[in-house]
């Protein structure tokens, strides 16, 4: 687990844009579901993290991630550029603080795909963030999916499965939990979680102050 330098102040919880934190063990289907959600809902933008890992086949810099070297990452971290950062599977990942807060202040909903460590950090700074955890129907199915991807060696897959067991122990820290047994049903659950979160009183009042002006009118 990474340590987190105290460099960021808590954000204004009245910002109109909603922040959805989506976490999952590797192989649970998180990236696929997020892509499908964004195709369904044009009102959500995606936060692109910075990472020191190498691009996978088909990935492009600035689309899936901003790919940078370790020295650059450390410089950005020490400068306070990251709202959160974590070390996962021997690679570093971080979220741009200024970009994310600017999006929320502008009223745009944003998805942040990070692990449970990052989720803890972000929710401490943005208490109104909505946590959604995607879980596989079983560890055996998770291992099968990782093998079917054909991207990792047997040793890496076993390490990811072991890490997943630790990650799943943090599932109770999230607002919504989606079991990805059937992809289409999981998508509908994700859409429902996003919709419900947008209807919370604090979010509605931040988005539509004209509707609630009577609460402050003399």
Summarize the structure.
The chain has 218 residues and is α/β, with parallel strands linked by helices. Helices cover 41% and strands 18% of the residues. A five-stranded parallel β-sheet has the order 2-7-1-8-9, with helices on both faces. Strands 4-3-6-5 form a four-stranded mixed β-sheet.
Give the helix proportion (percent range). 40-55%
- Low-pLDDT stretches are 1-13
What is the count of structural domains? 1
CATH superfamily membership:
P-loop containing nucleotide triphosphate hydrolases
- Individual helix count: 8
> What is the assembly state of the chains in this entry?
single chain
Structural class: alpha/beta
Keywords, separated by commas or semicolons:
218 residues, alpha/beta, 4-stranded mixed β-sheet, 5-stranded parallel β-sheet, disordered N terminus, single chain, 8 helices, 41% helix, Rossmann fold
Q: Can you walk me through this structure?
A:
It is a single chain. The chain is of the alpha/beta class. The protein has one domain (19-207): P-loop containing nucleotide triphosphate hydrolases (Rossmann fold, 3-Layer(aba) Sandwich), CATH 3.40.50. Helices cover 41% and strands 18% of the residues. Strand 5 and strand 6 (91-96) form a beta hairpin. Helix 1 packs across helix 7 (183-198) and helix 5 packs antiparallel against helix 6 (154-168). The radius of gyration is 18 Å and the shape is globular.
């Amino acid at each position: 687990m990474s340590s987190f330098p105290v460099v960021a102040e808590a954000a204004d919880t009245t910002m109109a844009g909603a922040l959805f934190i989506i976490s999952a063990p590797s192989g649970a289907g998180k990236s696929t579901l997020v892509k499908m959600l964004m195709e369904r809902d044009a009102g959500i933008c995606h936060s692109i993290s910075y990472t020191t890992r190498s691009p996978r086949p088909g990935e492009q810099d600035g689309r899936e991630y901003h790919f940078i070297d370790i020295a650059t990452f450390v410089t950005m971290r020490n400068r306070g550029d990251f709202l959160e950062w974590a070390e996962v599977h021997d690679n570093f990942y971080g979220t741009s603080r200024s970009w994310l807060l600017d999006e929320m202040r502008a009223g745009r909903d944003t998805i942040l795909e990070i692990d449970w460590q990052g989720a803890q950090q972000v929710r401490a700074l943005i208490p109104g963030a909505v946590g959604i955890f995607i879980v596989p129907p079983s560890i055996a199915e998770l291992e099968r999916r990782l093998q079917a991807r054909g991207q990792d060696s047997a040793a890496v897959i076993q390490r990811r499965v072991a890490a997943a067991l630790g990650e799943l122990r943090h599932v109770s820290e999230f607002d919504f939990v989606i079991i990805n047994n059937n992809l289409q049903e999981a998508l509908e659950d994700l859409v429902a979680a996003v919709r419900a979160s947008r209807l919370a009183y604090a979010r509605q009042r931040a988005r539509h102050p004209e509707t609630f002006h009577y609460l402050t009118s003399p």
